[in-house]
Amino acid sequence: MKKHIYALFVFALVLASCSNPLPADTKVQNQQNDYLIMSTLWYQRASECRALYYQAYNFAKQSLVANLAESKNNKPKAVVVDIDETVLDNSPFEAYSIRTGKAFSKELWNEWTSKAAARPTPGSLEFLKFAESKGVETFYISNRSVAETAVTLQNLKALGFPFADEAHMLLKTDTSVKTVRRNKVTETHEILILAGDNIGDFDELFEDRSTEYGFDSVDAHKADFGKRFIILPNPMYGSWEREAFKGQKGLTPEQKNELRKAALIGYKELAN
């Protein structure tokens, strides 16, 4: 009987230790990326997100055919695509950050990309194979570091992406602005389509969002979207968020959340 009582006592202690709440500081740390939950969940689980990718790449096919027919340039033809959230889905990295509460770092990102495990975004592989069938080359211009060249190529090749080689990949060296790299492609090719999840993937003029979040630049080039510029959905991260922080650096997670809330437009503000 004593043995049974002792076993029950030990079991109760183990159960109590499992049910004890985490220390407050650990809780806060694990919750600092909670603002990403809805956007990452939508990206991974919403059929609407998947449909938007298919819609974008369907437009890209139609526009590529039309742009080919209209071209009077003798240069070889090309499409330029970003990589992350354009042709490769990195949302598992965001999910890991949410669950662990770990802030973004190069080390953490490299841990993910070194796995070469990202899946293709919906419709991207089909579009680039379609472009290849039309004699159009693909150039991958990404702000991944050049140190990630080997693992990125490994990932793209394993998925069957065309032109997955060093000659067609231009990763970041000293600047995230892609103008120089795009210009390098135009030296030898005519770019018919540019696809990306960030408007800076299309033209340097979109880099400046200091006035009305860059809306005016987008409005001025609205005819290019769907024809030459193919934008993909990414609510998880991007340069669009910087304007909400008003150029401030070194902000705490709490400060960032307050600035995000302040940037929202409520119905009472619309009434004024």
Describe this structure in words.
The chain has 272 residues and is an alpha/beta fold. Helices cover 47% and strands 12% of the residues. The chain has helices spanning 2-19, 24-31, 37-45, 47-70, 91-100, 106-113, 124-133, 149-159, 179-186, 215-220, 253-263, 267-271, and strands at 77-81, 88-89, 119-120, 137-145, 169-172, 190-196, 229-231. Strands 5-4-1-6-7 form a five-stranded parallel sheet, sandwiched between helices. Strands 2-3 form a two-stranded antiparallel sheet. Helix 3 crosses helix 4 (47-70) and helix 3 packs antiparallel against helix 5 (91-100). The longest helix is centred in the N-terminal third of the chain and has 24 residues, at 47-70. It is globular.
Rg over C-alpha atoms, rounded to the nearest angstrom: 23 Å
Tell me, rounded to a whole number, the average pLDDT. 91
Strand pairing plus helix content: what structural class? alpha/beta
- What does the overall shape look like? globular
Distance between the termini: 76 Å
Number of helices in the DSSP assignment: 12
- Largest β sheet strand count, sense and barrel closure: 5 strands, parallel
Beta-strand share of residues = 5-15%
> What's the SSE pattern?
HHHHEEHHEHEHEHEHEHH
Helix content: 40-55%
Major sheet: arrangement of strands: 5-4-1-6-7
> What is the count of β-strands?
7
Low-confidence stretches: 5-17
